[in-house]
Amino acid sequence: MNKPLPNSYRQGPDSQGRFGQFGGRFVAETLMPLILEVEQAYEAAKRDPSFDAEWRRLLTHYVGRPSPLWFAERLTAHLRANSAREDLGAKVYFKRDELNHTGAHKINAVLGQILLAKRMGKTRIIAETGAGQHGVATATVCALFDLPCTVFMGATDVERQQPNVFRMKLLGAEVMPVTSGAATLKDAMNEALRYWVANVEDTYYCIGTVAGPHPYPVMVRDFQSVIGEEAKQQMMAAEGRLPDSLVAAIGGGSNAMGLFYPFLDDADVRMYGVEAAGHGVETEQHAASLTKGRPGVLHGNRTYLLQDAHGQITEAHSISAGLDYPGVGPEHSWLHELGRVQYVSATDDEALAAFQLCSKLEGIIPALEPAHALAHVIRMAPQLPRDEIVLMNLCGRGDKDIFTVAKHLGVEM
Amino acid sequence: MSRIAAKFAALKAEGRGALVTYLQGFDPDRETSLALLRGLPEAGADLLEVGVPFTDPMADGPSIQRAAQRALKVGATLPGVLELVRAFRAGDGTTPVILMGYYNPILAYGVDRFCTDAAAAGVDGLIVVDVPPEEAGEIEPQARAAGLDLIRLVAPTTDDARLPRVLAATSGFVYYVSITGITGTRSATAASLEEAVPRIRKHTDLPIAIGFGIRTPQQAGEAARLADGAVVGTALVDTLAASLDEEGRARPETVGLVLEQVRALAGAVRGR
């Protein structure tokens, strides 16, 4: 059960929802039958061509997929100018999932899950949200399908993400501020699970990332893999070959899993997941579960977690509310231990610098989440040969973050 | 015979069901918690559940969440709770003690060592809320080797197809979660219990205790008559919480108030 799968990194999870030792279904008995029902429904939907056709129709005409592949020419030139030698400075491309309707990759998996909920006959949708991107995506799709929607959001996050709270309400969703624990994303997820336990008959829980009990990690990954599948084709069209490196930010890890998964068996493609280092991984104030955490069980799955010596979960910190989570999807934990993906980190300050550089050089204001990925690109690309290609997932746009960034830069708005 | 089996057998001979109490270890501090545990059997509790504090108790309602936060604030840990049980066990060799909590603190302690140490401390059974039968391999062999019962939850959502699998993974007694919901938020109707208990009985000879949502002596009496035991947790935690001072510290009357409530519950379970 714990040995690496032969020949392919794309065979997981096993029938128990495990990626090696990670993943699984660690939920209370009240939820267990429902989790099994979601799994059965998802397996059936996967085999139904009409399900896929409807999802892809919505991706094309509602979301605006495929998202473009963009050669970041000015950024590339800038990084080349900063490289030590003339033959250094890789070519940087962005996968522009920030251009999706609602401004991030989240809607890819939300559409899939809401279609599934409808197939299951569920009439209410709940979701958790940190920065509010997944909450906005869920509220949006619920408006489209005329489904009542309740979004659980930590009271601290409600306070610091007012524009998204208002967006969700405009879209007709109810926003439930969560005051338990530290009142952030992890507590929002606890509360959503508690609500679900009490409303199992009619409610579907739309999870925003590749975490939670099986089948959520595999299901969200499958839906998000549209990112990597498109990118592969687009890169072949643009360059006639695959990229040398992929880079994506990691909170729970759904945008990264979506980009990486279709490339996992392409041995020559290196992959970098960028965790949020907050004030620095050497401090207590970060969200780098893989870099500094250790395996444990939370929110239905075994994975790397930030925790103390006694197994109590500790608070994450990041300037980006979307990366502010003390865990990570189980498939990332597995890829980390196998060494297939390198997990690195970027601090708040590095992300802020990348945020500003991208805005000025490319005319694209990125979300703070992909700004972490970009911070790593800025470190890495000048060290790489000039003929190499780096592909970064620009998974969200920064409109939601301008207030946070202004505050950190000391600008009054 | 284990303490749990012996207790249920003795109660059966007495012709009544069990009163099972739940309090969180170290709520609101170690000394008060120990005084409560020591007072419970005399007040009429037949089996004691001791909650292990966890930062993210996803099956618990607000009362028990706050209890966990109070306990963690005074430094509660799993080793600390084991030490608490050891101290209780030094003065009571017969009352069964069941640890109830979540898996991560056990994982951090080390599953093998935890089961050995828990048994040595005088723990009789475990309820690990977030380890369903599907994940039984995680802890069942170690618990069995240490002689600990692994008590599983059966919920209204556990259908007949699934029930045998859950019961096969259970020992000691069956904990019937009488509502679809978290602890202490609502109560089951007598009618739904009258239907549920025989459904479980068809599949098992183990004693059945009913919990989640039992607050009053009347409800406890009914549940203990319908099944083999009634678990009362949130109602006791609420009494404890209401007795604390503004800083969340115990007052001199805290222990007495909780035990008084246990006496009333025990009276109802005994048909008085």
From TrEMBL, chain A:
* CDD domains xrefs: Trp-synth_B
Please list the residue ranges annotated as the Tryptophan synthase beta chain-like PALP domain: 72-396
User: Which cofactors are named for this entry?
Assistant: pyridoxal 5'-phosphate
Keyword Signal applies: no
Specify the pathway.
Amino-acid biosynthesis; L-tryptophan biosynthesis; L-tryptophan from chorismate: step 5/5
The protein's annotated catalytic reaction(s) are: (1S,2R)-1-C-(indol-3-yl)glycerol 3-phosphate + L-serine = D-glyceraldehyde 3-phosphate + L-tryptophan + H2O
Question: Which EC number(s) are documented for this chain?
Answer: 4.2.1.20
The record's GO molecular-function terms, alphabetically, read:
tryptophan synthase activity
Q: Which residues carry this modification: N6-(pyridoxal phosphate)lysine?
A: 106
Q: Record's Gene3D superfamilies?
A: 3.40.50.1100
Q: What class of enzyme is it?
A: lyase
Q: Which UniProt keywords apply?
A: Amino-acid biosynthesis, Aromatic amino acid biosynthesis, Lyase, Pyridoxal phosphate, Tryptophan biosynthesis
List, alphabetically, the Pfam families matched: PALP
Subunit details for this protein? Tetramer of two alpha and two beta chains.
Give a short account of what the protein does.
The beta subunit is responsible for the synthesis of L-tryptophan from indole and L-serine.
As for family, the record states: Belongs to the TrpB family.
Protein name listed in UniProt: Tryptophan synthase beta chain
The protein's organism comes out as Belnapia arida
From TrEMBL, chain B:
Query: Which keywords label this protein?
Result: Amino-acid biosynthesis, Aromatic amino acid biosynthesis, Lyase, Tryptophan biosynthesis
Which InterPro entries does this entry report, sorted A to Z?
A: Aldolase_TIM (IPR013785), RibuloseP-bd_barrel (IPR011060), Trp_synthase_alpha_AS (IPR018204), Trp_synthase_suA (IPR002028)
The UniProt catalytic activity note for this protein reads: (1S,2R)-1-C-(indol-3-yl)glycerol 3-phosphate + L-serine = D-glyceraldehyde 3-phosphate + L-tryptophan + H2O
Q: Which domain of life is it from?
A: Bacteria
Q: Does the keyword Iron-sulfur apply?
A: no
| UniProt-annotated catalytic positions | 49, 60
> Which pathway does this polypeptide act in?
Amino-acid biosynthesis; L-tryptophan biosynthesis; L-tryptophan from chorismate: step 5/5
Q: State a single Gene Ontology molecular function.
A: tryptophan synthase activity
Stated EC number for the protein is 4.2.1.20
Q: How does it assemble?
A: Tetramer of two alpha and two beta chains.
HAMAP family for this protein? Trp_synth_alpha (MF_00131)
Similarity-based family? Belongs to the TrpA family.
Task: Provide the function of this protein.
Answer: The alpha subunit is responsible for the aldol cleavage of indoleglycerol phosphate to indole and glyceraldehyde 3-phosphate.
- Would you tell me the protein name for this molecule? Tryptophan synthase alpha chain
Q: Which organism is it from?
A: Belnapia arida
What's the encoding gene here? trpA
